[in-house]
């Protein structure tokens, strides 16, 4: 089998479709390199003394794990000096991180969730990194949070890495979705799945059912119909799958179909869900749409939402198109 590296893929994509300028290619390669470093730290586990709490909280009031902090630092360090970025933003940092003055600045903005699925770190279950790339607004001099507040449709690239039995990197630059597997011995990313498409037919759904008593009626109706199985309105049995790492749940759905849901619920009526719009929902929605699926907040397309703040939360329904359309229609009924 001829092996195609991430670099070769990016260069060829640029030649054929003119969709990956040199600066964006550098950006993607640098993020991929940081993911390699994170993957290495994750795989060391207790031996690398990377497990457990960091003894701090992030801006969302969540306890930070050592790996949350480490991964954040790795992504910042890797991306600071290349000249491809104007600023970065992260789940783990309250405010944006402009590129320090000692380095040249580029035209891109990078957002990330450095370590998604933090509750799974210490129990050796798949976790990952999610990232989203935007262009800085024309004429921007000093980057501000406002410059990041662009709709998901403005993303020029998005991706995620899963640190699981294999380490994979799934990437879109708006021309389909491709998956690369980390060859640890060679230290390189190898193209292993081209043009991924989410299967339309599915019998799997992902939701944290321990919140069922708080769900609003549209979500309850949709899940009740799935649970009714063969003799219910759907006429077939469904399986629940919930890893509690969005990256791993989305990766399964990209490969096998299904729907992932993290709805808003009645526990905290003012909170529009748990997941964050700009560095979790938007990049995943971009990838899922590029793979033929759909992503909404129950009412509208996630990519069309105008963000109001950096750490904004959003309800998420994404995956196989017909399932997402069905649960969305229940919200809009
Ligand atoms: P994190 O970014 O702090 O890890 O939180 C996001 C994660 C998602 O990966 C996952 O889908 C969800 O939180 C799990 O939530 P729950 O603990 O309710 O199962
Ligand atoms: Mg996360």
From TrEMBL:
Domain Fructose-1-6-bisphosphatase class 1 C-terminal: 198-331
Pathway note: Carbohydrate biosynthesis
Enzymatic reactions: beta-D-fructose 1,6-bisphosphate + H2O = beta-D-fructose 6-phosphate + phosphate
Molecular function as annotated in GO: fructose 1,6-bisphosphate 1-phosphatase activity; magnesium ion binding
Alphabetized Gene3D superfamilies for the sequence: 3.40.190.80, Fructose-1,6-Bisphosphatase, subunit A, domain 1
Cellular component GO terms, alphabetical: cytosol
Residue ranges occupied by any Fructose-1-6-bisphosphatase class I N-terminal domain in the UniProt entry: 5-193
Keywords associated with the record: Carbohydrate metabolism, Cytoplasm, Hydrolase, Magnesium, Metal-binding
E.C. designation(s): 3.1.3.11
Main location: cytoplasm
Subunit structure as annotated in this protein's UniProt entry: Homotetramer.
Name the record gives this protein: Fructose-1,6-bisphosphatase class 1
Organism: Noviherbaspirillum autotrophicum
């Amino acid at each position: 089998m001829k092996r195609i590296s991430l670099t070769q893929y990016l260069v060829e994509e640029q030649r054929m479709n003119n969709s990956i300028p040199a600066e964006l290619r550098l950006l993607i390669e640098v993020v991929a390199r940081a993911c390699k470093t994170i993957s290495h730290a994750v795989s060391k586990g207790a031996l690398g003394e990377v497990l457990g709490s960091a003894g701090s909280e992030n801006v969302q009031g969540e306890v930070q794990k050592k790996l949350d902090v480490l991964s954040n630092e790795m992504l910042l360090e890797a991306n600071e000096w290349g000249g491809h970025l104007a600023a970065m933003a992260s789940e783990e940092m309250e405010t944006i991180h402009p590129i320090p003055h000692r380095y040249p600045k580029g035209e891109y903005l990078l957002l990330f969730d450095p370590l998604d699925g933090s509750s799974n770190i210490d129990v050796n279950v798949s976790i990952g990194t999610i990232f989203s790339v935007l262009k800085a607004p024309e004429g921007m001099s000093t980057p501000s949070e406002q410059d990041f507040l662009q709709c998901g449709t403005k993303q020029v690239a998005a991706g995620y890495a899963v640190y699981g039995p294999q380490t994979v990197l799934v990437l879109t630059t708006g021309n389909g979705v491709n998956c690369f597997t980390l060859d640890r011995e060679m230290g390189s990313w190898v193209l292993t799945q081209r043009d991924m498409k989410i299967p339309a037919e599915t019998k799997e759904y992902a939701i944290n059912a321990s919140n069922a008593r708080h769900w609003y009626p549209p979500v309850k109706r949709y899940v009740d119909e799935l649970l009714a199985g063969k003799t219910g309105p759907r006429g077939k049995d469904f399986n629940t799958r919930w890893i509690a790492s969005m990256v791993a749940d989305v990766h399964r759905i990209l490969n096998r179909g299904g729907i992932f849901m993290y709805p808003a619920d009645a526990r905290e009526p003012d909170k529009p869900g748990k997941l964050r719009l700009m560095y979790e929902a938007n990049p995943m929605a971009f990838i899922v749409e590029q793979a033929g699926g759909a992503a909404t907040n129950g009412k509208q397309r996630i990519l069309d939402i105008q963000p109001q703040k950096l750490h904004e939360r959003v309800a998420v329904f994404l995956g196989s198109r017909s399932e997402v359309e069905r649960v969305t229609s229940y919200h809009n009924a």
